[in-house]
Amino acid sequence: MSSQRSISSFFTPV
Amino acid sequence: MLEARLEQAQILKKVVEAIKDLVQDCNFDCNDAGIQLQAMDNSHVALVSMKLGSEGFSPYRCDRNIALGINLNSLMKVLRAAANEDLLTLKAEDQPDSLNLLFESSSQDRLSEYDIKLMDIDQEHLGIPDTEYAATITLPSAEFQRICRDLSALSESVSIEANKDGVKFACSGDIGNGSVTLRPHTNVEDEDKSTKIELTEPVNLTFSLKYLVNFCKASSLSATVRLCLSNEVPLLVEYQMGAGYLRFYLAPKIGD
Questions:
Q1: How far apart are CA B69 and CA B71, in angstroms?
Q2: pLDDT tens, B220-233?
Q3: Average pLDDT in the B143-151 region?
């Protein structure tokens, strides 16, 4: 099974 | 204070209709450049980013930065009362408790006025880096919607593979598998029906179809959609509007 990445692991809070 | 008039209420109606199933509450950030919105879905898989530039409004006035915290379902209830062709004016004070919406029929014989209550939303703002994507695909938005809908009947996930020959959307599920391959072509009579593929290196990524089907609710905003991909980064799905854009970012799936 493939696992879903989280968007916040790519874009960081500003 | 904010005062912003849109020539056609349908622009905001379509934006809210397109995102309200992904995002429940969000801030509409207003400043002199226009109105912007950024929000993640509840499961933090997708990010919505919207901009309606001040040039898309006439008149547009916003003296200082105002965050309008809005429940999108409430906003949609009010926007349904506007006809697509109505003029829509948004008004708010500098520290507003409510947003005022005025709908004027194009024949000017009916004025409707609504106020919706605002909420304080503590929202994390994410920085989106400028990215040189390895593959940029421009295709008719209805075509993309159809591909996502058809493949979602078979599977939860789709792989998008772009190389010099074209772009292949493929999926496999319990009942079997399927794929759609698009090759670049130019429609000389209608540019919007063309498929363009700009590629610097081949890409192959897997995404959840549930989210892509959701993004396609924005199809009525634009005849074309732009898909931007690079390996190992979120997919960008972009619908251009007259004076702005509606963008969706979707984190990839990994492993098998």
A1: 7
A2: 999 999 999 999 99
A3: 98
The conformation of residue B10, written as its DSSP 8-state character, comes to H
All residues at 6 or more sequence positions from B2 whose CB lies less than 8 Å from its CB, including other chains: B30, B61, B62, B66, B68, B90, B91, B92, B96
Q: Which of B42, B45, B131 should be substituted to probe chain A, the one whose Cβ sees the most A Cβ atoms within 10 Å?
A: B45
Give residue-wise pLDDT tens across range B155-179. Answer: 999 999 999 899 999 999 999 999 9
Chain A positions in Cβ-Cβ contact with residue B129 (cut-off 8 Å): 11
Dist. CA B3–CA A6, nearest whole Å:
37
- 1-14 in chain A: CB under 8 A from chain B: 1-14
Q: Are B64 and B36 in contact (CB under 8 A)?
A: no
Nearest to A14 among B46, B125, B253 (CB): B125
Above 80 in pLDDT, residue B124?
Answer: yes
Probe site for chain A from B49, B122, B126, B208 (most A CB atoms < 10 A): B126
Average pLDDT value for residue range B248-255: 94
φ and ψ at residue B220, rounded to 5 degrees: -75, -10
Q: State the smallest CA–CA distance between residue B73 and chain A in angstroms.
A: 24
